[in-house]
Amino acid sequence: MKLLHFTLMCLVAWATSGCSSAIDAAKKIGQVIMDPSIQVGKDTDQPSTLRLTLLAEPNINPNSANQPSPINLQVIYLTEDSMLQATYYDQLQETELKDILGKNYLDHQDYTLVPAQYKPLPEITLDEKNQYLGLIAYYSNPEISEWKQVIKLNGTGGHRYHVLAQVKKQHLIIKVEKE
Q1: Rounded distance, CA 179 to CA 177, Å?
Q2: Distance of CA 108 to CAs 35, 137, 138, Å?
Q3: Rounded Cα gap, residues 125 and 132, in angstroms
Q4: Residues of the signal sequence (predicted)?
Q5: Backbone angles phi, psi at 77, to 5 degrees
Q6: How far does Cα 171 stand from its chain's mean position?
Q7: Of 98, 107, 97, 100, which Cα lies nearest the Cα of 130?
Q8: For the chain, how many helices (H) and strands (E)?
Q9: What's this model's pTM, rounded to 2 decimal places?
Q10: pLDDT, tens only, 44-75
Q11: What integer best gives the mean pLDDT of the chain?
C-alpha cells in the first residue's frame, strides 16, 4: 500500500511540475482560437507583407502624336529574377509570361493606368517562396523605354514592404521601404 501511495505521489508531483508551461500553452492556443490574428512564433518565422502603390506621371507613354496615353502593367511575383532579366520585349508579345519565366514564376497581376493616376493596392501576404517582385510596363515605344524593373524581397522574415512603382514618361522607378 505504501508503494502505491508513493507511486501516486510521484505521479502527481511529476504531472504538476510542468503544469505552468502546459497551462501557458493552453492559454495561448485559446487566445489564437479566439483571435486568429495573434502572432504564433518568432517574427523571423512570419510571412512578409507587401503594400504596393502604382503612380503614373501625367506624361506617360506618349503615342505617335506625342500625347500621353494609358499603359498596361504587369506586377510579377518570382522565386528568382534571371529569367525576367533575360526577357526581351518582343518575347512578351509572342509567349505567355508564365511560359517565359518557367519555374521562377509564382503569380502576376495585370493593371492599366491612365496618365496621372494614383493607385494604392491592398496589402498582401507574400508566399514563402517569393524572393523578387518584377514590373513590366508595355510602352508604345519600347525601343527607347526602360520597360522592366525587378527588386529583391524576402517572402519570410516578417518584413513589411512598402513599394512605390512610378511609371514615368519612358521608364519605371521602384522605391522600397522595409520595416
Answers
A1: 7
A2: 31, 13, 15
A3: 14
A4: 1-22
A5: -100, 125
A6: 23
A7: 107
A8: 5, 9
A9: 0.76
A10: 678 999 999 999 999 999 999 999 999 999 99
A11: 88
Residues 43-178: name the CATH superfamily: Type VI secretion system, lipoprotein SciN (2.60.40.4150)
The length of the chain in residues reads: 179
148-152 mean pLDDT? 97
List C-alpha distances in Å: 60 to 70, 113, 168: 7, 9, 6
Residue indicated by cell numbers 521608364: 171
Report residue 141 as a C-alpha cell.
515605344
Whole-angstrom distance, CA of residue 171 vs CA of residue 137? 8
| Residues contacting 79, CB < 8 A, separation 6+ | 103, 104, 105, 106, 129, 130, 131, 132
pLDDT digits (tens, 9 = 90+) for 115-138: 999 999 999 999 999 999 999 999
